[in-house]
């Protein structure tokens, strides 16, 4: 099993992840632009999109979290001021959102999309690096190889039907054993660096500006020596096939 899919590297060496062009559901507005690195059983996908131009979407067909890597993306939804995303900025698009997407020049962004039965929070929800952090659970002692970290999070979007949660998280340094990942998780690292260990002894080192996806059940370890902050998406169970 592949431990982690690197969606983007800010610096050399470039990602060796394989991407395939494809739509996420039959009404995918980004179908012609989407490159998928990982897709679960009819429920969740992660990858990258390169886009220029304009799109009008009457009703967004799924939940999607995006983080801009290069360029700028403007998202317009009724009743909201235009949301302009520059590099290292992100947002969650709720299912059912009426949306206009604009990019004046070629814009690259990474994504994590999930199917769901229906919207629980439509509209646009920005992800913020300067989040309203609150203390969150640390790790159990039996998986740690050192002191317990102090963790904080700011969960800004939750869809119970898809078991989909997105927000910002940070933590003091810690070292964790290799264990099966308990959920599907997308990460965009905002600060710090992490060494992700695999059972074969290999180590994947990533830092600020890098994005990855770890599938549920993938055996992976974590070691950080400084504060790490990230945008995240988690999905704790597989969602049913409810794409339109």
Question: Which descriptors apply to this entry?
Answer:
244 residues, mainly beta, Jelly Rolls, 2 domains, 9-stranded antiparallel sheet, 7-stranded antiparallel sheet, 20 strands, disordered C terminus, Cupin, RmlC_Cupin_sf
Report the top-level CATH class of the largest domain. Answer: Mainly Beta
CATH superfamily of the largest domain: Jelly Rolls
What gap, in angstroms, lies between the N and C termini? Answer: 30 Å
Rg calculated over all Cα atoms = 17 Å
Question: What name does CATH use for the topology of the largest domain?
Answer: Jelly Rolls
How many distinct folded domains? 2
Main sheet, how many strands, which sense, barrel? 9 strands, antiparallel
In CATH, the architecture of the largest domain is Sandwich
Uncertain stretches of 5 or more adjacent residues: 239-244
Strand content: over 45%
- The DSSP helix count reads 0
Number of strands: 20
Order of helices and strands: EEEEEEEEEEEEEEEEEEEE
Basic shape: globular
Helix content: under 10%
Q: How confident overall, as mean pLDDT? A: 93
Structural class: mainly beta
Compose a concise summary of this entry.
The protein has strands at residues 5-8, 20-21, 34-39, 44-57, 63-70, 73-76, 83-85, 90-93, 99-114, 124-127, 134-136, 151-159, 164-171, 175-180, 184-191, 193-197, 203-207, 211-214, 219-223, 228-235. By secondary structure, the protein is mainly β. The chain starts with a strand and ends in a 9-residue tail after the last strand.
